[in-house]
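Order emerges. One example.
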Amino acid sequence: MTQNSELRADGVWNWTIPALATRLRDGRVIKTCPAAGVCAQACYARNGTYNFPGVVERHQQNLQYVLDDLPGWQRQMAAELAHPRHRGGWIRIHDAGDFFSDHYLAAWLRLVAFRPSVNFYCYTKEISRFRRLVEPAPPRNLRWVFSYGGKQDHLIRPGDRVADVFPDEAAIRSAGYHSQDASDLLAVLGPAPVGIPANNIPQFKRRMAGRSFRQWQAERDTKRAARRTAP
């Protein structure tokens, strides 16, 4: 696990894999965010330092470890989580990527149960997978947020803890959301619903065109539905 500059300020450690999709050195192409929608067009984890060769290689190594030796990865992760620094602390699962398969999510659920003194949280667009595998018996030390901008937005229900990406802080307040900009932990510990200010990346801002991810995805879903029903 690692700590980026943002999470280090909160004492949070994180585990990560490549965002959206990647081609491994052996030629395998793996979709790591199968439920991604419009978020793929403005993904911070496909920009800037995430594209540095060393960062790309590390993320791919993490993914390959999971794919090729899931039991070994699980044992090593369990051992690392036993370190005293993690007791009572927080682990963010993924600052890039998502729970791309049932086996991978199940492995994380075993880890969470095995280390009850450690707190875990995540953002995910894998709503259907969480409905099936997590919600029937949710671990007490795992918190999650369904983030808008994915293909499964329509599965979000009233009462779900949700996060949406907005053009800026003013848009967050106007929508009645609560910004987590001061601390990433506010996503799971602060008031809901959660608003995330968009990264100040010009091409991403242009693509968002003043919309939140939820609005953007809804527009796309409506257009696709209209095309399917057109004579």
